[in-house]
Amino acid sequence: MSRTALRICPLCEATCGLTLTVDGTRVTAARGDRDDVFSRGFICPKGASFGAVDSDPDRLRAPLVRRDGELREATWEEAFDAVAAGIRPVVERHGPHAVGVVLGNPNVHTVAGALYPPVLLGALGTRSLFTASTVDQMPKHVSSGLLYGDANAIPVPDLDRTDHLLLIGANPLESNGSLCTAPDFPGRLKALKARGGTLTVIDPRRTRTARLADRHVAVRPGADALLLAAMAHVLFEEDLADLGALAPHVEGVEELAAALGDFTPEAVAGSCDVDAATTRALARELAAAPTAAVYGRIGSCTVPHGTLASWLVDVLNILTGNLDRPGGALFPQAATDKTPRPAGPGRGFALGRWRSRVSGHPEAKGELPLSALAEEIDTATDAGEPVRALVAVAANPVLSAPDGDRLDKALDSLDFMVSVDPYLNETSRHAHVVLPPPPPAQSPHHDFAFNTLAVRNQVRYTRPAVPLEPGRMAETEILARLILAATGMHGADPAAVDAMVVEQTLGKAVRDPHSPVHGRDPRDLAARLTGENGPERRLDMMLRLGPYGDGFGARPEGLSLQRLLDHPHGIDLGPLRPRLPQPLKTRSGKVELLPEPIAGDLPRLRSAMDRRPAGLVLVGRRHLRSNNSWMHNIPALTGGSNRCTLHIHPEDAERLGVRDGAAVRVKGAGGEATAPAEVTDTVRPGVVSLPHGWGHDRPGTRLTHAATVPGTNVNQLLDGSLLDPLSGNAVLNGVPVVLTPVT
């Protein structure tokens, strides 16, 4: 008997609503949910392939435990016994920092990945935290922390109302958007143009997004911050800076003007390979637009000056008066955000509260660079114990971090490793215990992280579309039991983890004079929570305490879990609204336009004006039908344009004797790899491009389809030594490489 079920797609940041067709317990089709309050029926190839992702036969169905050197199926009890026996002795002998935690990108796409890792980290007390953020967006977190006092206060472009959108290092027609949650990003860009707006794209590749643009500027890779600094210089030089209503909330404008004095369009033209007239035109068009938004993404983050580029994106929005106004860039307000506190000075944002043991990299947002994970495992120093045990949750750093070969060897040397992963992949194959979560159709979904980045305020929740298969364990229970096993409470009821969080959260809320439940009895509030399990009770609590919540009866029309369940297609909470100064948590209570760490890094950017790459430089690229290394095992999502080829411009190909389709050896600072050449003028001369997430040719994995077309691991070309110093983010774009045709 066939039926339909609603589900929010967890396969990229667009968070589109899906209508699934379910036959028995198998998802046989997926289409866009036309009644979804946010996505309105939009779907991309990943969402359409939901059923194939869900039913991939290579997904692990039972835990694996290493016995006599071999991973073998085990019971859940045996698996968690092994976790407790593996982690606790490391903590007791060597201290909590000897246990590393690696969190991969999929964590932000699941309910469990949002709710439980913070509890695990708090309970373990380790400083050895590594996440996908430091091979992606950490520069944006750091620049937001320095500007606004909150690393998670990230303004997003008001796509549906802006008159002028400038994208730098972003290709949303392929990525579906990133740090900007927007179903049907392509449709929104086309609507911008249809209403007479302007789209400008700055990218060394003529991407699908760039082909849609009114103006495409093919900047030299890695020069993003120089170009943006020169645009800000023009705003000051030509008296075009106008903060408007922002002015009372901003400090440091005059100091910023002085700091950018050397970054003239003429001075940066050679290093950016953008003529001064174009740079001035970009600045003038931005200032002249009725409303405008500048949006930068991974191409501007994963470069030597990633934090400065991320900061300058917001600087341009501020100097043109477009921050925190409709049509500009605004701060979303998610339904599960904490109750907004009154505006005023906060604690601010600190960098480098501790440093990595080997290379002394400063922490950022509580994290150490993922690039440093291998050396933190395999290198002895007097600065403390190396990482001896590792907890990896939905992470595949052997492919996603630089120098995967070294990390491969380092993982083999660990005393113990546990991996929460549905696959035996390039990283989890090293684990002593693998804990597989169920397929997405068997899990609930709410977007805790992505709603804080959404271009429209809304809230949606879907329960599992398919009952949990016999022998499976819910991902929420897996992570709750992992917390108990890793922290000396092995064998306790996993519901105790949720109960503890509820008790602590409500206890804090009733003591907060700004909370809607101030002064009330936390036990009475806990008794009022609804939901079928602990995670739903926690969601109910967060909704009711949040900015749109019912306050446990204080605001009867407010949100609760039950109200959300009564609206299966979601609840629209309206367009983004100006919120300043409330989101600011800086010590001054204002936007601090030129914070000291930024000012201290500007001389490094100034020296970059004199440098030109002598040879070829490498950049990455996105594919619409994949998300990092996740989906290469799904036949429907590989092939076609989703191929691991080296893009090279015809001029460079002719000069080097490279033929289209022929194998080319690419050598970088960390190693070399071979990939088929694809000669195309979509990359500018001097630039070659390899996509990220490939390299599925290591032994011991169970990725049947991915292994047939493994591709090349681009990160193996990098040795991990190149980092943005403020954020610890890996430099993945604009790195020098040498090409040799394979004869």
From TrEMBL:
Residues 2-58 form the 4Fe-4S Mo/W bis-MGD-type domain. It comes from the Bacteria. Pfam families: Molybdop_Fe4S4, Molybdopterin, Molydop_binding. Signal peptide: none annotated. The keyword Hydrolase does not apply. Keywords: 4Fe-4S, Iron, Iron-sulfur, Metal-binding, Oxidoreductase. InterPro entries: Asp_de-COase-like_dom_sf, MoPterin_dinucl-bd_dom, Mopterin_OxRdtase, Mopterin_OxRdtase_4Fe-4S_dom, Prok_molybdopt-oxidoreductase. Coiled coil: none annotated. This is Molybdopterin oxidoreductase family protein. The lineage of its organism: Bacteria, Bacillati, Actinomycetota, Actinomycetes, Kitasatosporales.
